[in-house]
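Weekend entry, working from home. Most of the wet-lab plans are on hold until the incubator is repaired, so I used the time to fold the two sequences that have been sitting in the queue since the last round of cloning. Logging both here for the record. First:
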Amino acid sequence: MNELRKDELYVDGERLWKSLMDLAAIGATEKGGVKRLALTDLDRQGRDLVVQWGREAGLEVTVDQIGNVFMRREGRNPALLPIVTGSHVDTQPTGGKFDGNYGVLAGLEVVRTLNDLNIQTEAPIEVAFWTNEEGSRFVPVMMGSGVFCGAFSLETAYAARDVDGKSVREELERIGYLGDEVPGKHPIGAYFETHIEQGPVLEDAGKVIGVVPAVMGLSWYDCTVTGMEAHAGPTPMGLRRDALQVATTIMQEVVQIAKRYPPYGRGTVGMVQVFPNSRNVIPGEVKFSIDLRNVNDALLNTMHEEMLAFIAQTRRESGLEIAIERVSYYPPCPFHPDCVNAVRAATEKLGYSSMDVVSGAGHDAIYAARVAPAGMIFVPCKDGISHNEIEDAQPAHLEAGCNVLLHAMLERAGVIHAP
């Protein structure tokens, strides 16, 4: 195998940026973001544009039965499993230009660069985009990759409906992305995903590349505290059964539990419903969400047990009924050492500043990791803001992440430099 010179191996950052801006024009919002919900006409337009670009780059396109799209650049040895990269092109209702889209178009830019430099790989290279990662129109989230890895069935996904009663299957067929390939039958040798960090760690540390060794596990709960409504004036403090005051002690403990297990402990109460929600009525019922996260099962389970113990204690001391139900659980996802090391080695070779960053958000790479070795590359986003129309990232950082992706994929795919 001929050695490639380092100065030959860089993507075209301007071309990558233009592709991102061209795709962002589909569903563009007045505030500079993107609204391109899964399986809408705008999603079809976005998909069509990416597929068009893929075909112009010489890629062979395959669509599976949940609408996942795979675009293949053949290798010298087609018997080898493909090295795949990708993400998603659907967005939040108030989404940004980079979440998901960057990962897909970075993969396309890798292919365009290989074409420009007449580089042939031993293994095939593929660019994928997965259906309904965001889960903002249909649930569950990460639908396409979840069906692909067997986390839930195709029938479950097909039956999901939006607020207007339209089903996933109906909408896939309507926009022309109800494919033939059985999900999960598409082989993957290794999977890489580039992404904006969606948090402030890289920017705060002044680093360009985040090497992602793992994604945090998360545990979601619904909690209900039941007391008794009463008049706020005549009822003495000592005789109240105030559901909100008891609920707030639990909410504060959620935060304290997370603080006891740094650096990756997370505890959040993001949704609260107070009944009857009247200015001069002592609340009789409070329903609220709890979100616990950490980097491994042992820590997450410890946080879970501490929360249940505190709730049991609060129930005894307050005399109020407190119901707690775990409604969702995603285990922590460590990425494959070979893929993590490929990202780390590429970053070091290219001379970019870097640090390890454990992801606190879910990504399609979590499900891809169930069927193949996987890894992720993070780049900073302005102020750590994502899922927001003002989401932003520096072109130089996006280019750097794509360069790391190029080198990591080539390390896994093997390279021949054609004359």
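Second, folded right after the first finished:
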Amino acid sequence: MTPQPNPQVGAAVKAADRAHVFHSWSAQELIDPLAVAGAEGSYFWDYEGNRYLDFTSGLVFTNIGYQHPKVVAAIQEQAATLSTFAPAFAIEARSEAARLIAERTPGDLDKIFFTNGGAEAVENATRMARLHTGRPKVLSAYRSYHGATAAAINLTGDPRRWPSDSGAAGVVHFWAPFLYRSPFHSDSERQEAERALQHLEDTIVFEGPGTIAAVILETIPGTAGIMTPPPGYLAGVREICDRYGIVFVLDEVMAGFGRTGKWFAADHYDVTPDLMTFAKGVNSGYVPLGGVAISAAIAETFARRPYPGGLTYSGHPLACAAAVATINVMEEEGVVDQAARIGETVLGPGLRELASRHPSVGEVRGTGVFWALELVRDRATREPLVPYNAAGEANAPMAAFGAAAKANGLWPFINMNRTHVVPPCNVTEAEAKEGLAALDVALTVADEHTV
């Protein structure tokens, strides 16, 4: 795993990228993508020989790290046996992946509809809910991200929605609980849960319960800030949905498959939704795969009525073989328990210790290997280190923080005024401590922008 510098190859890779690759979420002439030469475990490296500890897990998907040999071998074996096949057939890798996933989902979520990723999973979950109920509207939280396809981007709460918001997509946004920046002026978790639930029910009543097909929530919001819900909130949402005949959808695309120290984040709250979306960690992102886990009641809706949806590559054999191998690796190597232990004994205590010494840290929150640091200019007022949706000079403090982290060999996950700590679920104790040490240095740079 020792990087071998090869600047000439790196320059060629970079030149071809800049000439031909159109990057997502970017002004094309204002970006400078790093040319990556390789990756293994919790690290990746560039063509200059610089190695980085990846505290982003790609885009929070390499739950077992890069290049796990058992998953690579499973993909190779599947490619040699049956590299692809249409979704209408029963294929061993597809059947086995569905079985392994269904064994781990909560309650009766025993039917699996495969997609190519998380956004398509959300698209199909909302379609299922609308067809099951015959109702048009879906409610989602402002602080959320559900994907970039047509329905998913409208469900998303953050500013990436704005350029694509049709204003007529049948989506209504509401405030979910977030005590640190409470929209309900709460002073305790219990109060925040009660007031958030009342707000949700008021929204349903005024929108018309008979018009609402589903409520969709990230079990623990990911990109929006890793805000763990207060006790009782998700159970309260479940009760409200049951009372009004509304489908409850949990988005576990980012939080699922060990990230929170449980197979699914819902396991922390003893809540079973009607539909659950997944992707990312299901096969550590080695081959694109997502899906919807479906309850018995909703599956029954389509027992004799065709479901009007599908994808050419649904349940692709290579992706499913990677999922089978990933789930088996997670079981054999105790990866879910490892994520819980690292969160409890290393990341949680370590991040709280950093917060005690750095005035730029307003709050530490998370579980497992799913954490966020809320960076602020002023702890007393909780003013964010940079404004909401900041860019350019307004975002300079966070840019300086990120540059300091990279200079110390840490690749950070940064969104607005937060840095997320989301290494692979099998990150070692030594690697986690290495990352904390690099964060310590970078936070000193952030401290320079506090009052």
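Plan for Monday: verify the second prediction. The longest strand covers residues 370-378.
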